[in-house]
Design goal:
Methylamine Dehydrogenase, Chain H; 15 strands; 4-stranded antiparallel beta sheet; about 0% helix; mainly beta
């Protein structure tokens, strides 16, 4: 659905390519955005939906992009693994992995890009350096450990307001 400031309108298209759930959205413009779901993500561009399969029994938690690069965080249900994936052609490929529950190098929640860094959230706020649109996977560090619990979502308003 799209709200234009006055009313809600259904975004139509090929139902087999549309998302069947919703965990996160990466909006590029009114006519170009990505929606993450349980085991896939769907891209909407100029009236056409395209679905990308991630993996059987995977849960895609977050999706975001920088420049022409699209990244997501996902984990296989029932396994202590967390993956950071990047769109490569017509497939998302694993670029980094960590534990989902113990001593994670990055978080499962939102992924964001600001100040030449990538940020993720989970059992803390994690960051990694960016070289253009590429993550420096050896630079992950935890910037903030919460006193209890963790973070499940994030929002980037601008580089100084996360």
């Amino acid at each position: 659905m799209h709200f234009d400031g006055n009313k809600w309108k259904e975004i139509l298209g090929d139902k087999s390519q549309m998302p069947d759930g919703f965990t996160d959205i990466y909006a590029i413009s009114n006519n170009h955005f990505w929606v993450s779901s349980s085991d896939h993500v769907s891209e909407y561009k100029e009236g056409i939906w395209k679905k990308y399969f991630i993996g059987e029994n995977y849960f895609v938690q977050s999706i975001e992009g920088i420049g022409n690069s699209v990244y997501l965080t996902t984990y296989p249900i029932g396994i202590d693994s967390l993956y950071l994936m990047k769109l490569d052609g017509n497939n998302f490929k694993i670029v980094d992995r960590t534990s989902l529950f113990h001593n994670s190098r990055f978080g499962y929640g939102g992924i964001m890009f600001a100040n030449s860094k990538s940020y993720t959230v989970g059992a803390g706020i994690f960051s990694a350096k960016l070289n253009g649109e590429q993550l420096d996977l050896d630079s992950w560090l935890i910037e903030l450990v919460p006193p209890s619990g963790g973070f499940s979502h994030s929002f980037l308003n601008n580089a100084k307001d996360i």
